[in-house]
Amino acid sequence: MAKLSLTRTISLASAFRSFHSPLLMGIIHSATLLFTCSSYSSSSSRSTSKRAHKDASLRSKFYSASFRDVDDALASFNHIILMRPLPSIDKFGRFLSALVRIKQYHTVVSLFRKIELLGISHDVYSLNIFINCYCRLHNVDFAFSILGKFFKLGVKPDIVTFNTLINGLCKEGKINRGVELFNDVVARGFQPDINTYNVMINALCKCGKTNMAIGLVKGMVERGCEPDAVTYSTIIDKLCKDGLVAEGLDLFSQMRNKGVSPNVVTYTCLIHGLCNFGELNQALSLLDEMMVQNISPDVYTFSILIDNLFKEGMVSKVQDIFNMMVEWGIKPNVVTYCSLMNGYCLHNQVDEARKAFDLMVSRGFANVFSYNILINGYCKCKRIDEATEIFGQMSRKGLVPDSVTYNTLIKGMWQAGRSQTALELFKNMCNHGQQPDRITFKILLDGLYKQGPLDEALNNIQRELFTL
Questions:
Q1: N or C: fewer beta carbons within 10 Å in the chain?
Q2: For helices 124-136 and 89-101, angle between their N-to-C axes, nearest 10 degrees
Q3: pLDDT at res. 251
Q4: What whole-number distance in Å separates Cα of residue 75 and Cα of residue 84?
Q5: What backbone phi and psi angles, to 5 degrees, belong to 416?
Q6: Alpha-carbon distance 220 to 211, whole Å?
Q7: What does pTM read for this prediction?
Q8: Which of 349, 371, 345, 372 is nearest to 360 (CA)?
Q9: Distance from C-alpha of 233 to C-alpha of 266, rounded to nearest angstrom
């Protein structure tokens, strides 16, 4: 009975498996299919979400006009022009303006044409951007051709349009055309703003027409446009450079009497002028005045003072000025360090010059000019081995010695009695593609002449040149 029951149980189990197998397999297959579909759906959803996030990021970059670089900007632009409706011209203008800020003028010109092809009409803001780009690319005549688009589109140019064109003309040295356009703008009833006047005054000063610039200041006041610190500083700078420091100081007084506050540029121009005029104490008084007015001197202010203090032999005062510079948190630049080196070498303090030089090297500022200063300092002190060591450093730093470097070292060799080394250095100069100049040959002639008659000196030079 137990055996029969077991047999029946096995038989029933087999029958059950046989009966339910297709159904069971179907259930399993359905579950697998459901899982696969679910996975595919999940993957597709993630992909869609990722794409949507990327699209949103590109749109955000376009509308906020913030991007990492030009490639990033172009990606956002190419995405946005596929949208419908397209953004308005003011949004495109803001985007193009951001590209101008990173100096991508060619890119702006290219995108400007693409915007036109999309059928979007330009406004005065976008057209001004286009004119500005052509002016910055030194194609002011192309910039003038954009004026035709203004009339074609019925857009009225504004004072920014003319300011940009006047600036473009002046930067290309076409001052007379700039003056003509300025006069035409005034005749057409446009009111020039402070930027228009400052552009014109700067151009007139640069081409030596300082009196015309001063006359323009009077004219702007009559038209109700008050000069600012830039206006006065531009003219003061030119007066000082022309040696008219007293006139510069008079204009400085007028400026303050009219309630216009001088800035760091104004003071630096006057300090430079006074130093060149030998009025170093008055220049230092202006520096003190800056401190009282809480106007921070810049690196150029301090560099000018350091250079002139050395020239006047006021070496001890240099350290005071340098310490003041550090206290104000102003980092010395290559001009400052070269002024320090040159000054110390001038007063035979070449070890102090070397300290300044080493600081330059550590900060990546050192250039051929700074190496030349130190080589000259060592040569004057007859420390030729150290000068030669610095010369060798140049090649290791990837710097190419120029004619000044070679001339300085060749002269130092002659003065130290190392005539053969001087001639070898001359050969080295020629072999490295550095052309000897009149100074080089004068140094060689002077050196060789001391060793024998002039004819023999000339023959020696010819022989050295022949063996190259």
A1: N
A2: 20
A3: 95
A4: 17
A5: -90, 5
A6: 14
A7: 0.72
A8: 371
A9: 5
Give the separation between CA 430 and CA 399, rounded to whole angstroms. Answer: 17
Q: Which amino acid is at 317?
A: K
pLDDT in tens, 147-193: 888 888 889 999 999 999 999 998 888 988 998 999 898 888 888 88
Structure tokens given for 325 = 């510079």
**Rg for the chain (alpha carbons), in Å?**
38
More confident residue, 328 or 275: 275
Query: b/e string for 13-44 if b means 16 or more Cβ within 10 A?
Result: eeeeeeeeeeeeeeeeeeeeeeeeeeeeeeee
Decide which of 70 and 273 is more confident: 273
Q: Which of 320, 266, 273, 275 is nearest to 297 (CA)?
A: 266
CA distance 192 to 80: 38
> Using CA atoms, how far apart are residues 400 and 402, in angstroms rounded to an integer?
6
Q: Which tens digits make up the pLDDT trace of 63-82?
A: 777 778 888 888 888 888 88
* Average pLDDT, rounded, for the chain: 84
Query: Which residues, 6+ apart, have CB-to-CB distance to 49 below 8 Å?
Result: none
